[in-house]
Structure formats: C-alpha cells, structure tokens
Amino acid sequence: MRIVITGTGNVATVLGRKIVQSGHHIVQVVGRNAVHARALGALLQAPYNNNFYEVADDADIYIMAVSDTALASIESWFPVKIKGTAVHTAGSVSKLALKNVANSYGVLYPLQSLRSESHIIPEIPLLIDADSAGTLQNIQAFAASISGKVQCADDAERMKLHMGAVIANNFTNYLYTLTQDFCAKESLDFSLLLPLLRETVDRLEQYPARLMQTGPAVRNDKDTIAKHLTLLKTYPVLSKLYAELSDSISDYYEKLQTDSI
Predict the structure, then answer these.
(1) Percentages (nearest 5) of helix, strand, coil residues in the chain
(2) What is the pLDDT of residue 114?
(3) What is the model's pLDDT at position 261?
(4) Cβ neighbours of residue 138 under 8 Å, at least 6 residues apart?
(5) Residue 63: in which H helix or E strand, if any?
(6) CB 91 within 8 Å of CB 165
(7) Which residue, among 50, 63, 56, has the nearest Cα to 27 in the 3D structure?
(8) DSSP-assigned states of every residue in 236-261
(9) Is 73 exposed, middle or buried, given 0-12, 13-18 or 19+ CB atoms closer than 10 A?
(10) What secondary structure letter does DSSP report for 32?
(11) Least C-beta-crowded within 10 Å: which of 22, 44, 103, 236?
(12) Cβ distance 60 to 34 under 8 Å?
C-alpha cells in the first residue's frame, strides 16, 4: 500500500520503520518541523514536506501519528480533504476526530510503548476501528500486514485498554524509576532486580496475576513492612507509595479470602 505519515515523533518513527520493513511504500512524511520531517524522511527513504497544503493525494492510507491535542484541533491545521483512508494512532481519542478530514477514516492504535531510539522494533498489537465495514476491512488488511496481533476496538474499549496500559506500564515504570533512584543513593546494584522483574512478567503468560502475588503485604507480614518503612523514612514519595500499596494488597487478598469462604 501507499502510505503518508503525518507526524515525526516516536510513533511515526517506529511505525514508519515497521511499515517499510513490511514492504509498503511511504509516499511522504509530513510534519510541522521541517528539520524533523527531513530527518524522518531520510530514515524512511521517503520525500518530506512541512506544508500541509502540499500533502500527497495519491496514498491509500494517511496515518495521523500526532498528539491527542493536535488531533483535537486537526481541522484547523490540516486543510486538505483526504481522498484515501485517514487513521489516527491515539488510544483515548474518538475516530470521529477525523470525520471532516477524510471521506473514510478510522483508528490504528499501537498498544505498545514506542521509542524512536530503540534499535529493535517490539511486538506491536494494533487496535483498529473505522467509520464503515468497508473501511474497517481495508484497515484490517493493512494492520495484519505489519502486526501479528490485530483486534477491533471501538472508542470505549480502546479508552479502557489505554487506561490499562497506563496502569500496567506507566505506573510500574515510575516505580522502577523510584527504585533505581533508591538503589543509586544507597549504592546498590539495581541490575540484581532485573531477573526478578523478567520472571514476574513471564508468569503472566501462564497464570493470573492475582495467583502469583508474593511479598510481605500478601502474607500480612507487618514486622517486615514496618522495617521497610523505617528504611524509607528519608524517601517520602517511595514511603507513601509503599504504605498505600501494601495496604491495598492486604485488603485485596483479605477480601478475596473472605469471598471464597
């Protein structure tokens, strides 16, 4: 297929690389910043442009890989009416954001944390939606050519999955950040924790997470929790999160045990 990519950030870069690897032709890269558009165009071996009045009119799919804020005002900065199919890549924005931009439109949401500097492209599940059955079929065919995991998800389902991604990925990454800071200040080797983290994620392939919970909170080991909180007296943010999460874990499993009686 012939593809136009609008945007020059992480999603545009990684999806662009994947699209090229899958044998599609990127007709054009379009972005507000000419320097960034030129750089991505060079990476993808495609022409670039920073004038939205000069968007190529012969592509099959136009991927709007821009921020949620930019999508909210797209009609003010994207002045042309797309002849092909327009899709955006946002998890929390309705497909209707593109209803006045193209005759056929939809969503191609990569449910993955994408970083342009990563050399290896990760597995990228794609959630798709469209304004009609015909458009959905076209998006489905394209999505299946670049990903082995494609599912339909309407605006409500996509929003919930996006929220799940924030909790499961963004929140845990913040905990990793705080733990790395703690280890650095305490002269501890954070890499010793990496096998533990990998094992925790690997178990999710086989078992429900609730059955794999370990640690002092699920055992209601108040002595160990107290010792840990003492260690964290000079780390107020981490101490607060430790206490709140420990209480939440204890309450969850106490209720689970009560409900099973």
Answers:
(1) 55, 15, 30
(2) 95
(3) 65
(4) 60, 61, 85, 104, 130
(5) strand 61-64
(6) yes
(7) 56
(8) HHHHHHHHHHHHHHHHHHHHHHHHH-
(9) exposed
(10) S
(11) 236
(12) no
Confidence (pLDDT) at 212:
94
Q: Taking the CA atoms of 196, 201, 205 and 208 in sequence, report the sign of the dihedral they define.
A: positive
DSSP letter for each residue of 68-111: HHHHHTHHHH--SPEEEEEEE--SSS-GGGGTTTEEEEEEEEE-
pTM of this structure? 0.91
For 66-96, write each residue's pLDDT tens digit.
Answer: 999 999 999 999 998 999 999 999 999 999 9
Q: Which two tokens stand for residue 86?
A: 């327009």
Contact 162, 168 (CB under 8 A): no
Q: How far apart are CA 149 and CA 119, in angstroms?
A: 21
- Residue 23 tokens read as 């044998």
| 227 close to 214: Cβ distance less than 8 angstroms | no
What letter represents residue 249's amino acid? I
> What's residue 153's pLDDT?
97
Parts of the chain with a pLDDT under 50: none
Measured between alpha carbons, how far is 246 from 56 in angstroms, rounded to an integer? Answer: 55
Q: Among 74, 84, 75, which Cα is nearest to 106's?
A: 84
Q: If we measure between CA atoms, which residue out of 94, 97, 96, 92 comes closest to residue 111?
A: 92
